[in-house]
Design goal:
It is built from three helices and three strands; from the N terminus they run αβααββ. The protein has one domain: Arc Repressor Mutant, subunit A (Orthogonal Bundle). Strands 1-3-2 form a three-stranded antiparallel beta sheet. The protein is an alpha+beta fold and about 100 residues long. It is globular, with a radius of gyration of 15 Å. Helix 1 packs across helix 3 and helix 2 packs across helix 3. A hairpin with a 2-residue loop joins strand 2 and strand 3. It starts with a helix and ends in a 20-residue tail after the last strand.
């Protein structure tokens, strides 16, 4: 049982914001795949199953950065990569406040 659920929710949100920031920091002008970013976020050697989880988490962060216009998806030949956004203003400043736009 969680004694203070609101406090725990804030801790989790802060953790995700930190990880999102690390994912953003892993990007530059050179395209990087989600796997490349997963190696930056999770540099230790991981068993294959855990590396897949690390890859999935990295991909989720990258797609969130695209949603917030802090990163851009680059499709190159047979792979998808990401670069830091060329824009200076993110659409949303905190990840926990980001919501996908509603369709008209």
């Amino acid at each position: 049982m969680i004694a203070e659920p609101a406090a725990r929710a804030r801790e989790i949100a802060a953790h995700h914001d930190e990880r999102l920031g690390l994912a953003a920091s892993a990007l530059g002008s050179a395209p990087r795949t989600a796997y490349d970013v997963s190696l930056a976020l999770f540099p230790s050697r991981l068993p294959p199953a855990q590396r897949r989880f690390a890859l999935a988490e990295s991909l989720a962060h990258l797609e969130r950065l695209v949603l917030e216009e802090r990163a851009e998806r680059v499709d190159e030949q047979e792979r998808t990569a990401y670069v830091a956004s060329s824009g200076t203003q993110p659409r949303v400043s905190k990840s926990q406040n980001a919501r996908p736009a509603k369709s008209p």
